[in-house]
Amino acid sequence: MVALLTLLSCSQRHQYSFAPGDVVPDNVLDTMDINTRFVCLEIPDTVFDLMCGRSYKDDCILSRSDLRYLLILHRNLEGKAVVGEMVVNKEIAADVLDIMEELFLKSYPIERVRLIDYYDADDEKSMAANNTTCFNWRPKSGSTQISKHALGLAIDINPLYNPYYKFFEGTETVRPIEGTPYIDRLSGYPYQIEEGDDCYNAFISHGFTWGGSWRSVTDYQHFEK
Ligand SMILES: [Zn+2]
User: Fold this and answer.
1) pTM of the entire structure?
2) Range(s) of the domain holding residue 119
């Protein structure tokens, strides 16, 4: 447990603390001030300790002060409200808070929003767990170039069900490999992102582009600014 989302009731007579991953009962949520549910913080010491040597490596060109730690709420496929956490570039922090709040209010399903550091900053492991993430100092998938994730400017949503796909010189690449069944986009899987849906619209209206529209590779999980 590295940080707590403290929810205050409207009257502020009751204070509840939830850690990332916790389910927040709807009867508790109903009494809460919406402004206490989506929070942007400087990177707390406990979070930075977890990130160092994992998502935040020695050669990272961003400073700790370029990044922000977000505590948010999301609805899982069962419709339960869950506390999520994400590290993003401070330049998109306000946008991401808005987007996550919009998706929460629309009950758009997001299974898991935990720091990639719990997966040793291993993108394959995190994606296979269908974990939604943003910052990770790493090269682009299949490349040595810096990824937008390395700058905290890209977010992967429900990545297991929205895999990265590349077909080049007769070879198919799918990431995560466990996402292979979900390359077929006509089947309407849970958590599937499509052009014009609530997730797509929330990101696009905040000036992000969608990897599902790219031509060279198709990255259904990926939104970047
Ligand atoms: Zn991505």
Assistant:
1) 0.92
2) 5-224
